Amino acid sequence: MLDAGAMFGNAPKALWSRWVETDELNRMHIACRCLLAKDLNGKNILFETGIGNFFEPKLKARFGINEDTHVLLESLQQQGLTHKDIDIVVLSHLHFDHAGGLLSSWQYGKEAELLFPNAKYLVSSIHWQRATNPHPRDRASFIPHLNRKLQQSGRLKLVSGSTHELLPEVTFEYSDGHTPGMMHSIVDNVVFCADLIPGKAWIHVPISMGYDRFPELLIDEKEAFLNRHYKANHQLFFTHDPDTSMAFIHYNNGRFSATDEISH
Ligand SMILES: [Zn+2]
Predict the structure, then answer these.
(1) For residue 230, how far is its CA from the centre of ligand 1 (angstroms)?
(2) How far is the CA of 179 from the centre of ligand 1 (A)?
(3) Reported pTM
(4) What's the gap between Cα 53 and its chain centre?
(5) Ligand 1 centroid vs 86 CA: distance in angstroms?
(6) How remote is the CA of residue 18 from the centroid of ligand 1, in Å?
(7) Distance 55 CA to ligand 1 centre (A)
(8) How far from 205 is each of 20, 202, 251, 261, CA to CA, in Å?
(9) Residue 16 has pLDDT above 70, yes or no
(10) 23 and 38 in contact (C-beta within 8 Å)?
């Protein structure tokens, strides 16, 4: 559960209350969804890891995290996999709600361990600079000991172009409005929106989150992103939408919206 006002930036409650349901504290349900490409040319690729279960109980309560387990590990198990079977983890950015699942579950008096021992971790090089030298405004969104462990693993691979030799099946685009160097993966006809468009309510171009570092830049980037992927007939993948995992883009009269949504 997250504060709905923060999720919709400067949009008034009269508007966003039509799009999402909130509790008595104005909080809304937020998913932290990952995308698994199983056996893609013999590799298991995981796009993002969700929030995981690394927070101590006090912080879990503060962020309204309801789950008591490492949901990603359970979801992988349902696919017949463990974290050891993942060959590549692609991280759009290293905010804790996208990368926390790289860490093992919280245990009293023990520092969490880095999971996915056989994986390479792909992060954009611009974003790695930001994550390791955060601005005071977004320092709390990063997990310093996670960054340290990624660096020490020797398996961190920094990405800067539209492709990477480890993953020729995927192309990359970048945006800077949510956080510098956020990486959007395109695999088949699916594009990973990350926090540029966290859910279908944010397809509407003027809507941004209070967490976005550069809202006007984000809105320009989002408009270009939607135009590009509308023309390419790509399907959007949403990390945070509580109900909708994917949708195509609809364009009518200067306004973008979601169509042919997939719910789960
Ligand atoms: Zn983020």
Answers:
(1) 23
(2) 7
(3) 0.92
(4) 16
(5) 23
(6) 24
(7) 17
(8) 17, 7, 11, 18
(9) no
(10) no
pLDDT at residue 224, rounded to an integer: 97
What is the reported pLDDT for 90? 98
Distance 66 CA to ligand 1 centre (A): 19
82 Cα–ligand 1 center, Å: 26
Distance of CA 34 from the midpoint of ligand 1 (Å): 14
Give the residue among 174, 180, 215 at the shortest CA–CA distance from 193: 174
Selected from 3.60.15.10, 3.40.50.1000, 3.40.190.10, 3.30.420.10, the CATH number assigned to the domain covering 32-168+178-183 reads: 3.60.15.10
Q: How far apart are CA 226 and CA 188, in angstroms?
A: 17
The Cα 98–Cα 127 span in angstroms is 13
Q: What is the pLDDT of residues 152-210, one digit of tens each?
A: 999 999 999 999 999 999 999 999 999 999 999 999 999 999 999 999 989 999 888 87
- Output the pLDDT for position 4: 65
Q: How far is the CA of 84 from the centre of ligand 1 (A)?
A: 26
State in Å: Cα 95 to ligand 1 middle. Answer: 5
What pLDDT, in 10s, does the model give residues 32-87? 899 999 999 999 999 999 999 999 988 888 878 878 899 999 999 999 999 999 99
Residue ranges covered by each domain of the chain: 32-168+178-183
